[in-house]
UniProtKB/TrEMBL annotation, chain A:
Similarity comment text for this entry: Belongs to the eIF-3 subunit K family.
Subcellular location: Cytoplasm
HAMAP family: eIF3k
Protein role: Component of the eukaryotic translation initiation factor 3 (eIF-3) complex, which is involved in protein synthesis of a specialized repertoire of mRNAs and, together with other initiation factors, stimulates binding of mRNA and methionyl-tRNAi to the 40S ribosome. The eIF-3 complex specifically targets and initiates translation of a subset of mRNAs involved in cell proliferation.
PANTHER family: EUKARYOTIC TRANSLATION INITIATION FACTOR 3 SUBUNIT 11 (PTHR13022), EUKARYOTIC TRANSLATION INITIATION FACTOR 3 SUBUNIT K (PTHR13022:SF0)
Source organism (scientific name): Powellomyces hirtus
Known partners and oligomeric status: Component of the eukaryotic translation initiation factor 3 (eIF-3) complex.
Identification of the protein by name: Eukaryotic translation initiation factor 3 subunit K
InterPro entries with a match to the protein in the record: ARM-type_fold, CSN8_PSD8_EIF3K, eIF3k, Transl_init_fac_sub12_N_euk, WH-like_DNA-bd_sf, WH_DNA-bd_sf
Pfam families: CSN8_PSD8_EIF3K
Automatic annotation (TrEMBL), chain B:
InterPro entries tied to this protein: eIF3l, PCI_dom
Full protein name: Eukaryotic translation initiation factor 3 subunit L
Membrane spanning residue stretches: 248-269, 284-304
PANTHER family cross-referenced by the UniProt entry: EUKARYOTIC TRANSLATION INITIATION FACTOR 3, EUKARYOTIC TRANSLATION INITIATION FACTOR 3 SUBUNIT L
Subunit architecture: Component of the eukaryotic translation initiation factor 3 (eIF-3) complex.
Keyword set includes Magnesium: no
Keyword annotations of the record: Cytoplasm, Initiation factor, Membrane, Protein biosynthesis, Transmembrane, Transmembrane helix
Length: 247, 539
């Protein structure tokens, strides 16, 4: 599968803009901006399509369209007069949901220092830093403090981020203590936690009532491997050639 | 494998110093025309054109008109550079107006001459604003001639190396102009007026337009798809794309776009441009060494900025190995300096990537890296202390980023470093989050199981912190890695040889080891042995 590809349901007109030189045409800014907002407010925002790979943390939102978001930032970069910090915030919020992919950083590279000074943008950068440093408890506290207009559609956003956090925990833990889990996911309510566990097929440890067992994956069972060398057939063609010459 | 570099011993630039060879009819006629001409027009330069240079230009002109690519190779790579060294190390070549007299006002030749004329000014002198504008106009003329002058493709043929240099220089001058115009403080009023009057000059849209048009006209993407998936190449290439001039310019424009997008901080689009180029196979990019090196530098750099350190290391290691193996070929090339500079930068970038994401790399490349950046590498792993070393290496090794829009000319500041500072800042904040990774790794290496609180005591931080740092370790060492398909694709996987998992607060650690590698050794020695045997048989 490709790295955060466009969603399958990307509208055709958007596709035509993003994939051609039309992406440089400032007249398309309003169309793309509307498309960004639509990604964020769509009810499918937190929905995910399970990835084709076996890893648990690779789940992409069904509506998030990285390349279209970056196309907007590119238009802003070339036409600063049209730049809207509000849309930048929306894009950054979407990029947060794309973790563990590095999309957020990739968006920042396309902005400039002036945009970063915007209070909303700065708040989102701070949220990103906390997630990057796995300071989940502090992250949830910061979300509380973020103004409504910076983080929209908050409940869905929380669900989306929870998926990322769960993925990160799942690559590190086989067994995790419930207080740690609750603070990481910000699910203080026991019923909500149980619903979450059920959804992810995580189970309470039968031997330890304070712990949850995570399903074993490739990532959370570290086995020592001896990497053997691989010799490709092509590397031997010359040697095989000698044999033919000798005949 | 190192093709297209003619043997220098075979074609000597001195050839052009033998005027008798070229004193054909044309030559004499030109000469006569000259003397008959209006004296007022010739008060200046021609008088100063040394005979050798005059003959060279006429020889050059003839070979361009006759589409003699082989000789153009020698003229371009040798003759021009030798004469530059001898006559114009600190002055510009004869003015194009003066040269026009020598070549019957051949418009196409003059465009090509001006390409070299201004390129020489950029490399040896300081271009004035007039030079910058004139050079831009000349590139417009050149690309207009190639793209729009007729419904038929041009039959012009130029050496590959030159075609690459045209695209390379075009972007370089664009980059240079962006940096130049952002230094508002050091401009006088006339310069500022001129900059305001001509917003079209080196405008980012115009530059991109040229590159996209060359790609489109040459149908290079269609051609690459056919060479990848099979199909009718003739049909895919079309009338224009089947000519080397168009095919190569189109191809080099892809690499050019890769570079421009990187300079603007758009790493996704940079790699997306390379979608149809198969890096793991020897592509057209390998025909010109400078292009080969540029391709890998920017692909590697984009990977690094995308947090795909493992892919970045692979890209750098690949090209650095190539450069170190073919060193003897390019020490004599006029591109040698540029290639060594880029290599130095790539060793620095690789040292950073390896520090962030420790892994095995090719031994040859590794030992050179240790030689050059051994001290740096040690400092890079020292947590907070390493920050300044990261900054130093990044500044040295990154491309000079640009702002695509003109600055506010009313505010007298020099903002040319702003774009680079911004890229560095974002990159460093990424680096900062993983400062403890190497330290944790060094502790975990010593154990197979370890209590989190014990690790906390080693690191002198609270247990709570250890838990988060362990998660950071896991999160950061898990990166997308290229497996197949286009360069942008990749699957998540662990990149370190040291992995662990947690059962509550107990860390279970496992280290992967490399098996002994003997295959390569045997292959090398079998080959050597066969060589010896066949040598003996011949005697």
């Amino acid at each position: 599968m490709t790295a955060s590809p466009a969603p399958h349901n990307r509208p055709e007109d958007i596709h035509r803009i993003v994939e051609t030189v039309d992406r440089y045409n400032p007249q398309n800014i309003p169309i793309l901006e509307a498309y960004v907002e639509q990604q964020l407010t769509s009810a499918d925002y937190a929905a995910t399509t399970p990835s084709t790979s076996s890893t648990t943390a690779t789940t992409t939102s069904t509506t998030y369209d990285r390349d279209a978001c970056l196309a907007v930032l590119k238009l802003y970069q070339f036409n600063p007069a049209f730049s809207s910090n509000k849309v930048v915030c929306s894009i950054l919020q979407l990029a947060l949901g794309a973790l563990p992919d590095a999309d957020f950083g990739l968006c920042l590279y396309m902005l400039n220092e002036d945009v970063l000074k915007d209070a909303g943008v700065a708040a989102l950068v701070a949220l990103h830093d906390l997630l990057q440093q796995a300071r989940f408890k502090a992250f949830w506290a910061a979300v509380e403090d973020t103004p409504e207009d910076v983080l929209v559609n908050r409940a869905l956003f929380a669900d989306r981020i929870r998926i990322y956090i769960a993925g990160t925990l799942a690559i590190a833990y086989r067994v995790i203590s419930i207080p740690t889990l609750q603070s990481a996911l910000n699910l203080k309510d026991a019923a909500a936690l149980d619903a979450f566990l059920k959804e992810h097929a995580w189970t309470r440890d039968p031997e330890d009532k304070d712990a949850v067992v995570l399903p074993a994956t490739k990532e959370n069972q570290a086995r020592p491997v001896v990497v053997q060398e691989n010799i490709k057939f092509e590397h031997l063609t010359k040697i095989i050639g000698y044999g033919r010459m000798a005949q | 494998m190192y093709q297209e570099h003619y043997d220098e011993d075979e074609v000597r630039a001195e050839e052009v110093e033998l005027p008798t060879v070229y004193a054909g009819d044309n030559y004499v006629e030109d000469d006569l025309e000259f003397n008959d001409g209006n004296a007022a027009e010739f008060v200046h330069p021609e008088v100063q054109i040394p005979d050798v240079v005059r003959n060279f230009i006429q020889h050059f002109h003839r070979n361009v008109s006759e589409r003699n690519v082989w000789d153009l190779h020698a003229i371009y790579e040798n003759g021009w550079n030798k004469l530059t060294e001898k006559f114009y190390p600190k002055a510009s070549w004869p003015e194009p107006e003066a040269v026009a007299q020598l070549v019957n006002d051949d418009a196409v030749f003059l465009i090509l001459y001006k390409e070299l004329y201004y390129r020489h000014i950029y490399s040896k002198l300081t271009p004035s604003i007039d030079d910058r504008i004139a050079s831009y106009s000349n590139y417009c003329d050149l690309f207009n001639y190639i793209l729009n002058s007729s419904t038929e493709p041009s039959d012009l043929e130029l050496p590959n190396q030159w075609l690459w240099d045209i695209i390379d220089e075009f972007i370089y001058q664009f980059q240079s102009f962006c940096i130049y115009r952002s230094k508002v403080k050091t401009k006088n009023e006339i310069e500022i007026e001129l900059l305001k009057e001509r917003p079209d000059v080196w405008n980012v849209h115009n530059v991109l337009n040229v590159l996209y048009s060359l790609i489109q006209k040459s149908r290079i993407n269609e051609q690459l798809l056919v060479s990848k998936n099979g199909g009718d190449m003739q049909e895919a290439a079309g009338e224009f794309g089947s000519r080397p001039l168009y095919r190569l310019l189109g191809y080099f424009s892809i690499i050019g776009l890769l570079r421009v997008h990187c300079l603007l901080g758009d790493y996704v689009l940079a790699l997306k441009t390379m979608e149809n180029v198969e890096l793991n196979k020897k592509g057209l990019f390998a025909r010109v060494t400078a292009c080969h090196v540029t391709t890998y530098y920017y692909v590697g750099f984009a990977y690094m900025m995308m947090r795909r350190y493992s892919d970045a290391i692979k890209a750098f290691a690949h090209i650095l190995l190539f450069v170190s193996r073919t060193k003897q070929y390019h020490t004599r090339s006029y591109q040698f300096e540029a290639i060594s500079k880029k290599s130095e930068q790539m060793y620095a970038l690789m040292a950073m990537c390896v520090a962030i994401s420790p892994q095995r790399i090719d031994e040859n490349v590794h030992s050179i890296m240790r030689e050059k950046y051994g001290d740096h590498s040690i400092r890079l792993q020292k947590g907070e202390e390493g920050i300044s070393t990261f900054e130093e290496l990044f500044n040295f090794a990154c491309p000079k980023f640009i702002s695509p829009v003109p600055p506010d000319y009313e505010i007298a500041v020099n903002a040319s470093h702003e774009p680079t500072r911004h890229q560095q800042k974002v990159f460093m904040s990424e680096v900062r989050t993983q400062l403890l990774v190497p330290t944790i790794r060094s502790f975990l290496k010593l154990y197979t199981t370890l209590e989190a609180d014990k690790l906390a005591a080693f690191l002198d931080i609270p247990v709570e912190e250890v838990r988060t740092e362990l998660l950071v370790f896991k999160h950061k060492t898990r990166q997308r890695r290229y497996e197949n398909g286009s360069v942008l694709e990749g699957e998540f996987g662990p990149t370190t040889d040291l992995d662990f998992y947690l059962k509550k607060d107990l860390i279970y650690i496992a280290e992967s080891k490399q098996g002994r590698r003997v295959g390569d050794w045997f292959i090398r020695h079998i080959n050597k042995f066969e060589d010896i045997v066949s040598n003996m048989e011949r005697r």
